[in-house]
Amino acid sequence: MPGTHKTFCRICQALCGIDVEIDAGRVLSVRGDFAHPMSRGYTCEKGRQLGAHLHNPERLRSCLERRTDGTFAPIASEAALDAIGARLRLILETHGPRAIATYSGTAAYMNGTAIGITRAFHEAIGSPMRFTTITLDQPGKIIAIMRHGLWAGGGHSFESANVVILIGTNPLVSAFHVHGGPPGFHPGDIRRAQRERGLRVIVVDPRRTETAELADLHLAIQPGEDATLLAGMIRLILAEELHDRAFCDAHVAGLDELRDAVAAFTEDYVARRTGLAAELIAEAARLFARGPRGVATAGTGPNMSLHPTLTEHLVLCLDTLCGRWNREGERVNVPSLLTPDFPRPAQAFPPSLLPPELNPEANRERSRLRQLRQINQEMPTPALADEILEPGEGQVRALIVTGGNPLAACADPVRLARALESLDLLVCVDIALTPTCRRAHHVLAARHMLQRADVAAYQDMLYERPFAQYTDALVAPDGDLLDEWYVFAALAQRMGKKLVLPGGELDLGAKPTTLDVLELLYPQSKVPMRTLARYEGGHVFDDIDIRVTAPIPGLEGRLCVAPEGIADELHALRAEPVPEPGRFGRDGRFTHLLISRRMKHVNNSLCHDLPRSKGRANPAFVNPGDLASLGAVPGELVEIESDHARVVAVVEADDGLQPGVVSMAHAFGGDPAAPGDPRTQGTPVNVLVATDRDFDPWVGMPRQSAIPVRLRRIS
Fold first, then answer.
1. Which of 16, 250, 276, 390 is deepest in the core (most CB within 10 A)?
2. 3-class SS at 380?
3. For residues 539 and 533, what is the distance between their CA atoms, to the nearest angstrom?
4. Distances (CA, A) of 507 to 2, 153, 485, 515
5. For the chain, what is the mean pLDDT?
6. Do residues 112 and 161 both lie within one domain?
7. Which of 165-179, 598-612, 683-697 is the most confident on average?
8. Nearest to 602 by CA among 517, 514, 664, 539
């Protein structure tokens, strides 16, 4: 239909509202929707190129089947599903349910049906082997809640905060945010809040990022020392009695144990380890504790370094000690319109009342080799290659990949590539032929985001207003393309399994639409899906005003700041040697620490094929002094060596970096088993990381930031 239509971008988690001008099936322009109540006209350069993304001649228009000579040939989608379903059925009957696994990438979370339908598929076949990106970069957020507990009334909102502390996150570039953090769909709200209500912003980051430029206080920390800093801040807050004593007395367990565990993290000691002035550490702790309202959040920086689960636990402890949770009568700042109504009393919920994703008793599966733990009712992705390569009962023999390119995202991708090539069946559902797809037996061509109906499900758990948005498909499919929900429903049908969603069985015989499927996935939403579908561009339902209620009589629960293992982790952290500049790693032979960063023109492995992204690398940024010490000039090549591998990268100067730090973005470099030209395709940083060392004991996530490396100029 020609004209301008409202929808939302699904390239990243921000889900910004956009106006799309269409004529004769072609997108003529994409602009920010200034009537959108949340993003208010904001878009980034990626979203504004959605037309080029849709009309890219390299986008898949048909499904593909691998020939015996390794090349691909087109195949009709139903024929492909027949072949895949038959092979899955045989694998299930021969090897059991654990032999079938799925991997859901970033793009799957930007699809309102993809995650729910994948869960239902696993329940139908009885397989726990569901892998996602959650255990690749920030599993500590979930683990921390499982250990610390959940405050039913929710936390303070960004809109009401007097102070926020942002640890290793750069929302001005990433457009990513978590509960209480600056909104990714309008990161300029940081400036507005500082100007209009005096918000104080503390940024902890080794680099002077775009967000750090706005900070009232920037703590340029030594990479990987976030847990040390947080332990020191907590020690000072408790020592100076800046914590909310009334809240802690009524609702917190383990306070004395935590006090003892952080006692050795004095300001002088923390200053030596973090490279920060003791006065600056104290100023940050006091500023955050004074509040009175505020939020602490951490991003991929500390979560991909050592001690990620401890770091996230200490982030929760900061909020809890300072009483940053909503009290009786206050508004619940995240109404989550797609979820059912449930009690929001002013109290901590015991573990038995937590949803399955957060309930320890509902996450009892373990990986076969290292006994890594299930969280969020999914298995740890760092163990995926092990589960495929290790023979024996429970070996993964079939993998379905949706919305992701694990070879670009996972550590040690060369080993993972070998694992993928050994599978009996690899199926990829994608819009492009990625390096992962090139190893598949079947590639199912997915609909582009503008070709499918959808709901803004991811942001539903973050919107601080009662807003939700449904969109129809704006453009008809231009080939034999499939919705992800249909793929799993069709495969379950061919395997003789019923797909049961929260609202009932999904019956393909009834020829359901995507709207029908969304109704089944969100049957108890606070606003019925068909009501939501009447509002083009989304709607704020101001009549929905959820308040924190009185505690439920007889329900006992406390937030635990010192659960089992935390004191031991803090003691082990304190026992580590103080890092010596220029001598990193176990034997001190590495000169730099490599940290992660974001680049605005891409989102993980997405958007590298956009017109403004093609040919752009992910340079190794270093301090200008380090560049001179290498004898290099910007644009030259350097070799970067870790204790696992070597890569080649373009080097550039960044005066926002302290000496001894290298900063690079991930998910570049093309096929990691055969990297391309680092000048045009970038460098696969994940090649430097092994999965069998320096890993988190919960889910096996290896160190992917603050990596000890050394650099050598290539003449």
1. 16
2. coil
3. 10
4. 33, 38, 12, 14
5. 96
6. no
7. 683-697
8. 664
In sequence order, what DSSP letters do the residues of 211-227 get, joined into one string? TGGG-SEEE-PPTT-HH
* Residues 6 or more apart in contact with residue 307 via CB below 8 angstroms: 224, 226, 227, 569, 573
Whether 535 maps to a domain, the answer reads: no
> How far is residue 557's CA from residue 582's CA, in Å, rounded to a whole number?
47
pLDDT value of residue 288: 98
Q: Strands of 26-32's sheet, edge to edge?
A: 3-8, 17-23, 26-32
For 366-397, the pLDDT digits (tens) are: 999 999 999 999 999 999 999 999 999 999 99
Please check whether residues 177 and 298 belong to one and the same domain. yes
pLDDT at 1: 63
CATH number for the domain that contains residue 321: 3.40.228.10
Sign of CA dihedral 327, 330, 336, 338: positive
Least confident of 110-124, 173-187, 217-231, 362-376: 173-187
- Domain count of the fold of the chain: 4
CA dihedral 527, 529, 531, 536 (to 10 degrees): 110
Question: Containing domain of residue 243, as a range?
Answer: 155-325+560-566
Do 400 and 435 reside in the same domain of the chain?
yes
Residues 132 and 207 in one domain: no
Q: Are residues 252 and 312 in the same domain?
A: yes
Q: Decide if pLDDT at 20 tops 80.
A: yes
- Give a yes or no: residue 350 inside a domain: no
Residues forming beta bridges with residue 583, ordered by sequence position: 580
Query: CA 693 → CA 370, 581, 696, 711, distances in Å?
Result: 12, 22, 9, 21
**CA-to-CA dists, residue 143 to 42, 153, 551, angstroms:** 33, 20, 25
pLDDT classification of 483: cutoffs 50, 70, 90: very high
Say if residues 133 and 110 touch (Cβ distance below 8 Å). Answer: no
pLDDT in tens, 436-460: 999 999 999 999 999 999 999 999 9
Residues 91-113 as b or e (16 or more Cβ within 10 Å = b)? bbeebbbbbbbbbbbbbbbbbbb
Same domain, 102 and 206: no
Could you give the CA distance from residue 117 to residue 484 in angstroms, rounded to a whole number? 8
Instruction: Flag whether 571 is in a domain.
Output: no
Distance CA 42, CA 546 (A): 28
